[in-house]
Amino acid sequence: MNTTTAGLLTGLALGFAGYFGGFAAFVVVAALGLAGLVVGHLAGRETRVSDFVRPREGREGHEGGQARRVR
After folding, report:
1. For 20-68, how does the pLDDT look when each residue is reduced to its tens digit (9 = 90+)?
2. What's the sign of the alpha-carbon dihedral 28, 29, 32, 34?
3. Which string of b and e fits 5-40 if b means at least 16 CB within 10 Å?
């Protein structure tokens, strides 16, 4: 399936959800569609989880990924 077909199906699903279910259904379908997109990319190995998450450097109480010990 190419991106044009995927976009068409996404638009149709959101249109039906908005028309028959109202705004709340539109938001739920959009959120689930986004979650499916992320899972699909991760399953296809096109992206990594680390692309979406920033490292925890500079957080107070952490040093080099390990907690500091208080003496």
Report:
1. 999 888 888 888 888 877 777 667 766 666 777 777 776 555 555 555 5
2. negative
3. eeeeebeeebeebbeeeeeeebeebeeebeeeeeee
